[in-house]
Chaperone protein HtpG
Amino acid sequence: MQETGSISIHTENIFPIIKKFLYSDHEIFLRELVSNAVDATQKLKSLAQLGEYQGEAGELKVTVSVDKEKRTITVSDRGIGMTADEIKKYINQIAFSGATEFVEKYKDKDASAKDQIIGQFGLGFYSAFMVAKEVEIFSRSYKEGSEAARWVCDGSTEFTLETAEKAERGTDVVLHVAEDSDEFLEATRLRGILEKYCRFLPIEIEFEGTVINQTQPLWTKQPSELTDEDYTKFYQELYPFSEKPLFWIHLNVDYPFNLTGILYFPKVKDELQLQRNKIQLYSRQVFITDEVKDVVPEFLMLLHGVLDSPDIPLNVSRSFLQADANVRKINQYITKKVADKLAEIFRKERSSFEEKWSDINLFVKYGMLSDDKFYDRAKDFALLQSVAGKFYTFGEYTELVQANQVDQNGQTVLLYTTDEEAQHAYVVAAQERGYDVLNFNGPLDPHFIGLLEQKLEKTTFKRVDADTIGKLIEKEETAESVLSDDEKTKLQELFAKAINNEHMHVQVEALAPQDAPVIITLPEFMRRMKDMQRVGGGGGMAMFGSLPDSYTVSVNANNPVAQRVLKADDEAATKLAKQAFDLALLAQGLLKGEALTQFVKRSAELLAAE
Ligand SMILES: Nc1ncnc2c1ncn2[C@@H]1O[C@H](COP(=O)(O)OP(=O)(O)OP(=O)(O)O)[C@@H](O)[C@H]1O
């Protein structure tokens, strides 16, 4: 029997059009052909299980081979095979009509949108023509008494179908590689493609004598069968040379959508950008992409691992994906699972949760900032860390500071430092007052503080150096000043003149005698604007970046230095004022260069003086 015919489609010779449209990702032809071979093999397995196929199943693997001389790539399977009639139906009609539909629908879309849709229009088989000038199919159906068939086509609408010699059941697809696709005749290139897309396919794939895949990857197994070692081993296979993950979540849901996978919490610290695109997306164990944007909530993209779902539509554009009901549900499901897992570790192993906090806080905060539902779930296990190294939940901390840190307006004032070393003097001053100080030094913390102020009732945050200790948390009692109003004015003028800097606003304040003679502070509001801007807080605040710092210099009226300055002659007063101011700068870590040199010199003179 030999038949030649014309494939009944409307567009004449769609081959060049498809080839042009899809050029950016030719390598996926192999994924498509191997997937088809795997599908056919699995169908045979099911039929055998159901008793509908009673013949010898034999070794059910898929073999990929390359012959550089003959310029062919062959994908062979021992699956259900096709009769000549089935080839006509499935290849000529389904595969080709899919291709036509593709061309018509996606003529105007950009290349990346087209890459995504190739698998979804029965275009799978047709993708062979992206690299081959001619494709042959040799197939023999599992059905008893079937004759083997050979089909050949050059990608045009003409094909030839004839009986053939083929002893074994199954299908061989032979690609005659086109001149411009020589790269695919290289074994290393083919192996690379197989390892990328076929690494976890459920049927063994053999290439050059070795099996390249794991047929039962970890996520397809029952969590109850797996040990921690299994999970860390799999992680290291996915991401060689990475540090061990902190913990993981095994996802498994089949209603209302189908999703399996394992998400790992990596050690993230503050490498926000570096760690993205680490989640791999699979559809029934076939690798699809590692660009999971829109499928996974933004903040969860810091996680690593695999997701496998046949319900994620890969055939549509980005904007459609965002609106897709399944994708939204998957998003919510994953978010909830992640929050549940964190809550569980917090509940069951609080100390281990605290140990991991430095690695996961960035991620939790990111989630709380970007997803209200996640905030609601996380607010009971998110932690605040004090400079004393203790951890508190929001509730615990509010209770802790209730006695001492509520101001005259009933606001709870939470104090924090962004740099314990640099702000040491202020931290100590706060602690001496019986205040507790929190550590906030992460890249997201300025935003996080803003969020907490919105969410926590009657609560404000102040950095320890935002004001003099008496004013950090304003209480009814005000300290008496030992100076008269005239003396205060004189002191203010004297210091302003000595400091001689328009960004330093001098004021005289009645602090405790044992407090420093001069204290420099940067108002909370001002500093926050700058912090926010530094971490990219938003367009509207760009103007603050160009603002110079505007510090408040508080001269302590009750410190003995104030009296000494007032009593000294002009020259000595200026010297003392400068010295006291420089000491304050030193405490802020702001004394540098010329000013530092002057300070050291002046100190030596003062030491030498009677
Ligand atoms: N190796 C094979 N063995 C048996 N049948 C096959 C084989 N390859 C393809 N087919 C048949 O040809 C049809 C068309 O294949 P094609 O890859 O174009 O689309 P598909 O597999 O249905 O969808 P997808 O786009 O997801 O691959 C398949 O549905 C299948 O019936």
Remarks:
- Residues 63 and 206 are 5 Å apart (CA to CA).
- DSSP finds 20 helices and 22 strands in the chain.
